[in-house]
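dumping this here so i dont lose it
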């Protein structure tokens, strides 16, 4: 069944890499501790509970189901006892803040359907979920299929960072893993992406 995806304009296309301009969106998000698999599962269940009806419609006592969208995204978060994001293959702090591998705290996000505003969107009953508006942004993307092992994520992130450097694009935030398909999808058909927000490209790039 088709689900809504965030609207974007492709600014640059280069084989598996793209630079996209995303429109502003509203997200529901939660912070989860654990490795990537544990955090992904817990974060998904927490926000799914909200969109499946554990919420309150504004100006009423009723709840409402919210349509599922894609992708579900997650990004590493800096913990208070860390200098920065964790480095590929290890759990030691790295200075670039880009890595997805080794992190122990994550922000998991669902984009809300475009029909809603902050005023009309049902409010979560669970205090661990936050609703917020994400402004329009420019994002570099690496597209791939298959399983999201740590090694694969590390490799795809590294390739995207190298592509950014080759095209003189500057990262403006950490890497984010975007998954579009349910876990029962065959690996060859899975849509996965690494996203890194970048400063807008110079005209004519």
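and the seq i came up w/
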């Amino acid at each position: 069944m088709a689900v809504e995806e965030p609207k974007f304009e492709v600014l640059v296309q280069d084989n598996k890499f793209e630079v996209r301009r995303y429109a502003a969106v509203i997200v529901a998000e939660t912070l989860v501790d654990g490795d990537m698999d544990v955090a992904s599962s817990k974060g998904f269940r927490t926000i799914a509970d909200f969109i499946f009806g554990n919420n309150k419609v504004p100006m009423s006592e009723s709840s409402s189901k919210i349509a599922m969208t894609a992708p579900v995204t997650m990004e590493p978060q800096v913990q208070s006892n860390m200098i920065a994001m964790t480095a590929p293959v290890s759990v030691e702090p790295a200075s670039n803040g880009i890595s997805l591998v080794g992190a122990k705290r994550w922000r998991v996000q669902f984009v809300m359907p475009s029909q809603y505003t902050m005023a009309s969107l049902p409010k979560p009953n669970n205090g661990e979920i936050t609703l917020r508006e994400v402004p329009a942004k420019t994002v570099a993307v690496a597209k791939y299929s298959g399983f999201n092992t740590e090694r694969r994520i590390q490799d795809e992130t590294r390739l995207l960072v190298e592509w950014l450097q080759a095209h003189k694009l500057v990262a403006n935030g950490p890497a984010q893993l975007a998954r579009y398909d349910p876990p029962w999808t065959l690996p060859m058909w899975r849509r996965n992406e690494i996203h890194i927000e970048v400063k807008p490209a110079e005209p004519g790039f």
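The radius of gyration is 17 Å.
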